Amino acid sequence: MDISGTKLSYPESAGDHFDRAKEVQAFDDSKAGVKGLIDAGVVKVPTIFIRPQDELSEDLKSPPVEMQVPVIDLGSIGEHHSRERVVNEIRRASEEWGFFQVVNHGIPLTVLEEMIDGIRMFHEGDPEVKRALYSHDRTKKVRFESNHRSKHVNWRDTLTISMPVSDHLDPDEIPRTCRASTIEYIKHVTYLRHTLFELLSEALGLALDHLAALECARSGTFVCHYYPACPEPELTLGTGKHSDPVFVTVLLQDQLGGLQVMHKNRWVNVKPIPGGLVVNIGDLLQIISNDKFKSVDHRVLANRVGPRISVANFFTGVFDPPKVYGPIKELISEENPPIYRDFTVSDYIGIFFSRPLGKPGLDYLKK
Fold first, then answer.
1. Confidence grade of residue 360 (pLDDT, cut at 50, 70, 90)
2. CA distances in angstroms from 352 to 92, 165, 189, 245, 280, listed in the order given
């Protein structure tokens, strides 16, 4: 299959002449993403997407276990005893899983469905619109790209919309096909973040506004993934194993499934719930909680059925001007000394993006 004049290899033709760098560049130069490969009629997964044989073998030996990520109902947190129950559930989930799903969170189902539909329309829309936005420059507030940081390229395309603290995002910068739905969703999830960070503060035994006062909920980035149906899903991944270099992630996913979380050294499927949102603890919250809350590895499988669509909202804290974070002093003592050094978000993000996807970043900050 020709992509910008360069032929991508398939498993049976790679042989000793496979030049990964050249083929990744050819794929990147097309600016068409994985959707472009599907539109061009690929029937086999190009070699640059294929996972190492040891990974493939490990998955065959360790199929996912049948467990359910904790589901937490936020519908009655205004009542004292109900709020106490919710806080305890969030504490347990954050300590034991690093993941949970929330329902009755206040965002209308229509807003969630329209956000998913808007992202679908963008990714399935005019290829020239996507090419015009194509960039790996993380300073751009709106960009389209197809991820290729990992050793083996992920089977997905991404629209990223950044909401910096000190700058303004002009709505006209958001692609027209998903502009209205995105603006409405951002409005609702921005309100939800206040509730979540209050509950997380309480779950840590801190004042309601403690994490908000540290500005952990600032600088939201919306990463809108599109995972096309894959002709050979057993050979690749939608997103490779990783943890998130943020404080908290709120994820909207469609009902197709594919997200998995590592729990007790086994993969667990995060089953979609209509109207539910997935919340996971990021590396930065693990650091400032001094390992009380856990940031865990997760990934997304490729699937013969598709597309799968998800929207991850990353709360990254303050980038500029640089703000120093570290283990919260109320959570450390002689018996529980700080495990990590102080850091700035920009430094940690730099560490994260300079290493291979899947390699732990937390170790870099351990004392």
1. low
2. 27, 21, 25, 7, 17
